[in-house]
Structures are given as C-alpha cells and as structure tokens.
Specification:
Elements (H helix, E strand, L loop, with lengths): L2 E2 L26 E2 L5 E6 L5 E4 L8 E5 L2 H9 L2 H6 L8 H23 L3 E3 L1 H10 L2 E6 L5 H18 L7 E2 L4 H8 L6 E5 L2 H18 L4 H10 L1
Parallel strand pairs: 7-8
Antiparallel strand pairs: 1-2, 3-4, 3-5, 6-9, 7-9
Helix pairs in contact: 3-7, 4-5
Length: 230
C-alpha cells in the first residue's frame, strides 16, 4: 500500500545504493511506494528522459507512480528536469514508449514462464488450471470470442466459491490477437494463464503494472464490469 511520505521541498532523489528502492517517492504525487508501484527514470546522453524499468541504469534517477496520467502530468509540469537537476526533454512520445516497453517486458516474461512450464495457453488447458486452483491469473486477447471468455469466467467463479477465496483469480485483457502475434510470434495466444512459480509470478506482476499504467489505480471489479458492458 502506498503511504504518504514527507520530504524536504526538493524532490526525492536516488541514494548512493542504487539497489535500495525502499522509500522512493513519486515526483508527482509525493507519495512513496514499492518498486512494483513506481517507475525509475534517468537522463539519457542526449538529455532525453529514459525509463529504467529494470532499475539498473547508472546516475541520478527519479520515480513516478506507474500510471500514464501521472507521467503525462510530470511531462506537462517539467518535473523531470527539476528532479534530475538537468535540462532534460520529455515529450508526449515518452507515454507511448513506456507502454511499448512495458508490453515487451511482459511478453518476454510470458515466454520465459512458458519455457519454465508456468504459462500455458488454450481454452481447455486454462479452464482446467483455473478449476484446479493452479492458475495465478488468466489472460485473454481483447478480441477473443465472448463465449470462450465467459466459460473461463465461469471457471473462475466456480473456483472462488469452492475454495472460499475472498477474490477471484485476476483476469487480464491487455492485447488484441494481432498485437500478441507481433509481440510473441508463434507463442501468441487467445486464452492463457500463469501458473505458480517465480516466472509465473513475474508475469502477473508485470501484467498488473501494465494494466495500472493504462487504467490507473482502478479496482479489478470495476475494470471487469467495464469490459462486460462493451
């Protein structure tokens, strides 16, 4: 959970230990958060603002909560230049770059999880994994047939009722079938799910970040309801 952090008037900056991300503060909201809630940015050699998704690039960095609207606000208010203490340039193209990089990172993690046996595709396999409780999250192409999505949603509800879980298994609709083909090639899918394990958990973590980037900090139930109405 994000907690309010009170800092000096100057915006928070990176410390000597680049691996220590505890207590980092969003330059827009002035709230601190975990690495899964914040994106690090640094100044590139050409004075452009460079997203550091892996938090490995050298030099002074700043942090923004992983929401497109907040990064847009940081650009409009020239907060990157103030936080990085250099005359960096950040334009609207940074917003689409962020989406593209996060999508590529998620697709790469899906491929890695598939090799580890922690990401499977196909409606029948996904349905079985959900009903057995082995699924961490399900994924559908945004243009998947409604009937296929409905059947897997029924499996999610059945597992929730049978297990007594407080929440349903998350469901993500992040890419169209064409976008998945471009991102993943022969590993593209219509229906898929992440299974328990480090790689599967990595898929879910990156999917949550991309969804939050696009939709803001909206409850999953609200997002599901909006899709049902479409």
């Amino acid at each position: 959970m994000i907690s309010q952090a009170h800092e000096p008037e100057d915006l928070a900056e990176d410390g000597e230990d680049e691996g220590n991300v505890n207590g980092r503060m969003c330059i827009v909201t002035r709230q601190s958060g975990s690495p899964d809630e914040l994106i690090r940015f640094v100044a590139g050699p050409d004075n452009s603002v460079v997203p550091d998704l892996k938090r490995q690039l050298p030099g002074r960095g700043c942090w923004v909560t992983a929401e497109r609207a907040l990064i847009e606000k940081a650009i409009a208010k020239k907060l990157f230049a103030r936080a990085l203490k250099t005359d960096v340039k950040a334009g609207p193209d940074l917003l689409d770059m962020m989406d593209r990089l996060m999508a590529q990172q998620l697709a790469g993690m899906m491929n890695m999880a598939r090799k580890a046996g922690q990401f499977i595709s196909g409606a029948t396999k996904v349905d079985a994994a959900v009903r057995s409780g082995n699924s961490l999250a399900v994924f559908h192409a945004t243009d998947a047939a409604p009937d296929g999505v409905r059947k897997i949603n029924q499996a999610r509800k059945a597992w929730t009722l049978g297990s007594g879980a407080e929440t349903e298994i998350p469901s993500f609709h992040l890419f169209s079938e064409q976008e998945l083909d471009e991102l993943m090639g022969q590993n593209a899918f219509i229906h898929a799910c992440a299974l328990a394990g480090q790689a599967g958990e990595g898929v879910v973590k990156r999917a949550k970040m991309l969804e939050r980037y696009r939709n803001g900090d909206k409850p999953q139930a609200e997002l599901d309801a909006a899709r049902t109405e479409q």
